[in-house]
Amino acid sequence: MNKKIITLIIAIITTLLIVDNTTATIKVGLIYDVHGRGDLSFCDAAYNGAKKAQKKWNITLKEINPTQNTDTERALRRFAELKFDLVIGVGFLFREPINRVAPDFPNANFVLIDAEAKPNNVASLIYKAHEGTFLGGVIAALKTETKKVGFVGGMKIPLVEAFEIGFNAGIKKTNPNVELFVNYVGVTPKAFNNPAKAKELALAQFNKGADIILVAAGASGLGALEAATQTKKYIIWVDSNGNGLLPGQILTSIIKGVELSVYQMIENTINNSFSGGVKHYGLKEGGVEYIVDKDNKMLLSDEILKTVQEFKEKIISKEITVPYKRSQTENKKSERK
After folding, report:
1. Which portions of the chain are predicted below pLDDT 70?
2. Is the domain of 179 the same as that of 317?
3. Does one domain contain both 144 and 207?
4. Is 136 exposed, middle or buried (0-12, 13-18, 19+ CB in 10 A)?
5. Range of the domain at 34
6. What was the pLDDT predicted at 296?
């Protein structure tokens, strides 16, 4: 065959492949719980992961932010009815709605963040946040001058208590003489969207002598930032990188890999490699991490960073197992008696 003809055929095939790749798209639906986008934390991290994927693959991205009238099950069902390829429920509150909806749409892929679902077309993303907050506890124990630090949580549930338990474990492993104050904003989902209450709790802890507070409270954490601004004390942020929210006063951010995992789920959907089941993200998998950047590196000495890295390596190698349940800490207390 003539070389010119072969070259022309190759060029045509290549052109068709390029056109196919650029026009083909998938539809991704993001549904947020409680506060929604703008929390500078959990929901924003999910959005950032989706936007990163959108920039790379030009996907169709639709969002639903919560209101008083939002029916999460209906929102999930609506996306599935519109034949969205991937429907993401951002938050543990979507567990039961997804359990009800996903079986009715076996050809759709669903993602549940921070909880486990039963249907086999749901990827349940679970983060070992306690491993990250353990490192936050190491940093706090090494940095505190008053030997008093605090924890302000959102809704008092095991998911959030894991942040506290890991944080306390890191503190005690580093310096058992450091005292930890603990408060929760509330016992309902509204606790993740009550900045005024979080500010009140943070101010009370600062007034009792705490000079560092780890905040795991969703949008309520914005109130703790106000308390830190007033008192010139330190905050440890969680879920997303908040170091730039208050440069010089955010000691570090303990991020959960929500951005990374959302991006990966979209990528898997595009590549037809999506699979359901539980996906674990810890320090080993890059699913949690402590952040050092231009906004906080001046606060952390080389000695502190070296110690934190040593603890991180011990957790990854399983030399240290970080507790995340009350029963685990209670058992240790019993063993010491």
Report:
1. 1-24, 68-70, 330-337
2. yes
3. yes
4. buried
5. 3-128+259-281
6. 96
Q: What are phi and psi of 214, to 5 degrees?
A: -90, 130
pLDDT given for residue 21 in this prediction:
37
Q: Locate tokens 């890999």: which residue?
A: 257
| pTM higher than the cut 0.85 | no
Q: Which residues contact 232 (CB under 8 A, 6 or more apart)?
A: 249
pLDDT at position 329: 77
Residue 108 and residue 53 share a domain:
yes
Considering the domain architecture, whether residues 96 and 134 belong to the same structural domain is answered as no
* Predicted local confidence at residue 107, as pLDDT: 92
Indicate if 194 and 307 belong to the same structural domain: yes
Element (H, E) at 216: strand 212-216
3-state SS class at 303: helix
User: Considering Cα of 78, then 84, then 88, then 94, what sign does the dihedral take?
Assistant: positive
Is the separation of the CB atoms in 277 and 111 below 8 Å? no
Distance (Å, whole) CA 31 – CA 93: 11
Q: Which of 91, 92, 90 is nearest to 30 (CA)?
A: 90
Is residue 202 within 8 A of residue 220, CB to CB? The reply is no
Burial class (CB in 10 A: 0-12, 13-18, 19+), 4: exposed
Q: What is the dihedral of CA 6, 10, 11, 12, to 10 degrees?
A: 100
Report the CATH number at residue 238.
Answer: 3.40.50.2300
Report which residue type is found at 330: E
- What the block records as the tokens of 159 is 């998911």
* Residue 112 DSSP SS3: strand
Say if residues 169 and 311 touch (Cβ distance below 8 Å): no
